[in-house]
Amino acid sequence: MPAQRKVPTGLRLALDYGPLLLFFAASKLSTIFVATGVFMAAVVVAIAVSRWRTGVVSPMLWFTGIVVLVAGGATLYLGNPVYLQMKPTIIYVMMASILLFGLATKRPLLKLVLHDAFPAVDAEGWRKLTRNWALLFIALAVANEVARRMLTMDQWVDFKVWGVTAATFLFAIAQAPILIRHAEKPEPPTPGV
User: Fold this and answer.
1) Closest by Cα among 95, 92, 56, 88 to 72
2) Which residues lie below 8 Å from residue 53, measured CB to CB, with a gap of 6+?
3) Long-range CB contacts (< 8 A, 24+ apart) of 62-65?
4) How would you class 170 by CB atoms within 10 Å of its CB: exposed for 0-12, middle for 13-18, buried for 19 or more?
5) What is residue 121's three-state secondary structure?
6) Average pLDDT by consecutive 10-residue portion of the chain (193 residues)?
7) Is 30 left (phi over 0), alpha (psi -120 to 50) or beta?
8) DSSP state, 73?
9) Both 107 and 27 in a single domain?
């Protein structure tokens, strides 16, 4: 198994958001079915590039890729975009369930994913962050279900690409006080040592 390599920030953003942006562009230039095919192909390319450039594919990218391929395949095969519209709900519910399971078992699973980025956060901070992200995923699942029922397909795509992305970004910034409040203080050096 190849060693995992550091991923440049631009590449990480391209792998995480590239398929979604291509889906958005294709949905504006063509039909939702063409956009679905573009989305599916872009996710496969993102997985391949991640494996090639980093040596590994993150569990989140695998999970997202599988859900996109299954929901997108159902959309194309059955000629009904509702399956693609349900994909975010499935992902959000799964993420919330995983995080809530971690809280119930006293293992804040968010720490496994983000510890390298925030190594100084204490146990209480990870518990609060895990709880907050689980609640966000539940809210996003509900919002997606409301949006897919009330909006046109074009409006739903805009909501998914821009609204959810902006809400998630703002939510992440709003978690900064927890990161600051729950940062473990380094031990002061022992005099004379």
Assistant:
1) 88
2) 5, 7, 11
3) 63/91, 63/94, 64/91
4) exposed
5) strand
6) 61 82 91 93 92 82 87 91 92 93 88 73 88 96 97 94 93 90 67 58
7) beta
8) H
9) no
- Considering the domain architecture, whether residues 86 and 172 belong to the same structural domain is answered as yes
Nearest to 121 by CA among 174, 175, 173, 182: 182
Last residue of a domain, one of 59, 79, 99: 79
Q: What is the pTM of this model?
A: 0.77
> 121 - beta bridge partners?
183
Q: Has residue 191 been placed in a domain?
A: no
Output the six-digit token pair for 26. Answer: 């294709």
Instruction: Give the integer Cα–Cα distance in Å for 43 and 61.
Output: 8
Bridge partners of 183, per DSSP, are 121
How far, in Å, CA of 62 to CA of 44, rounded?
A: 10
CA 139 to each of CA 75, 117, 136: distance values in angstroms, whole numbers, following the listed order: 24, 25, 5
What is the C-alpha separation between 88 and 183, in angstroms, rounded? Answer: 32
